[in-house]
Amino acid sequence: MASIQMVDEKLIMDQIHEYENLVADVLSEGMKMCEILQAKVLLEKFPPTWSEYRNHLKYKKRDLTLQELISHMRTEEANRLKDKETSLSSLSVKANLVESTASKDRFHQNKGRKFQKNKQQKSFKAPDRKIQKNKPVCYCCGKTWT
Predict the structure, then answer these.
(1) Tens digits of per-residue pLDDT, 31-50?
(2) Domain ranges of the chain
(3) How many CA atoms are closer than 13 Å to the CA of 117, on its beta-carbon side?
(4) What pLDDT shows up at residue 28?
(5) In this predicted structure, what is the pLDDT of residue 138?
(6) What's the pLDDT at 142?
(7) Which residue numbers in the chain have pLDDT < 50?
(8) Helix, strand or coil for residue 75?
(9) Which of 65, 63, 51 is nearest to 20 (CA)?
(10) What are the C-alpha distances in Å from 125 to residues 101, 120, 122, 128?
(11) What ranges does the record give for the region Disordered, renumbered to this chain (predicted)?
(12) CA torsion angle for 65, 70, 73, 74 (degrees, to 10)?
């Protein structure tokens, strides 16, 4: 059992099948091994990138059987593959901003200068006509108030 170690390059489920075959060989030799021990050994063989998930499962209050652990691993692997696909697709959608040297030069020309107000300030005046206000209308009967 010490010879097997999971790696990230291969699918986890393929490696689990190899582990199950190894356990079946051990059991066929007449050695007894409970399912919880089989699960604990498999838990220790997780790849390095799964260390956080391994620690989460290792310190649960209830021990997992081998089949429960495999079910958890199948779900986790599916989630990781989905996350990897979405992260790769989001990388292809993103674009980088490329500035030309002309825009950089324009920025550096004005650097350090104070903002100068236009000497010919325009003054805006309101028109001299009276603004008409709408008279309130009654919601029920429609009459206008004075």
Answers:
(1) 998 888 999 999 998 888 88
(2) 12-92
(3) 4
(4) 94
(5) 85
(6) 83
(7) none
(8) helix
(9) 65
(10) 43, 15, 10, 9
(11) 102-129
(12) -150
What is the pTM for the complete model shown?
A: 0.54
Confidence at residue 29, expressed as pLDDT on a 0 to 100 scale: 93
- 137 forms beta bridges with 144
Assigned token pair, 146 = 């004075």
In 29-65, which residue ranges form alpha helices assigned H by DSSP? 35-44, 51-58
Token pair of 82, please?
């989905």
- For the record, the structure tokens of 117 come out as 């107000």
Inter-residue long-range contacts of 74-78, CB under 8 Å, 24+ positions, other chains counted? 74/12, 74/13, 76/12, 76/50, 77/11, 77/12, 77/13
Are the CB atoms for 54 and 46 separated by under 8 Å?
yes
72, 57 in Cβ contact below 8 A?
yes
